[in-house]
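Hey, resending since the last one bounced:
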Amino acid sequence: MIVCSDHGQTQVERLARLQDSFPADLEGVLALASNRAGMVYRLPGCRLDARALAERLDDEPAADVVLFREGAAAVARRHGGELRFAPEGAGWRVEGEAALLDPDVYPNALERSWRALAAPTAGDVLVSATEGWELVDGGGRHHLGGGSHGSLVAGDSTVPLLAAGFDSTPFGPEPSITDLAPIALQHFDLRPPDSMRIAREAARA
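The structure tokens again:
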């Protein structure tokens, strides 16, 4: 038996509207938010590529880490700095400011970011909110004065994870909820897809 939570929770002290970084006269851009994460979509007619949209958030205090795909790599931007990364063998190829995604602050960030960008419904640009900030959703809802989640920071991401009934622990030295699907598949003697077999330890490289 495995018991876990799906997310952590951090305090919300300030609010921002992701839409305000993309004015209505900017054709073909849709910005959506949920809790402490946001997505920006390029719609038909958009003249800006993902990089140009991401760079618009460089001076937005609520936008901590901004992610997008560029060619075969993923790009993380933070306060104008940049890190490029992609899976390579059992690890990661990393170029740029490796400290930008400090694993003590953003646990398992490379794998989580890569998978989020690969999701079929993901936006062209993903936004992880700064600690203390929440991105107001399209209906104006928020959790000001309470707690919220959704960003890459440890407080949003670190969860209880308990296992019982195994001969030995099914987890590695740094357990993660990303281990759960491969463990379940292996229990039923099913081969996990390649996308689940990226070595998480490489995210710390």
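The longest strand covers residues 63-70.

Sorry for the duplicate.
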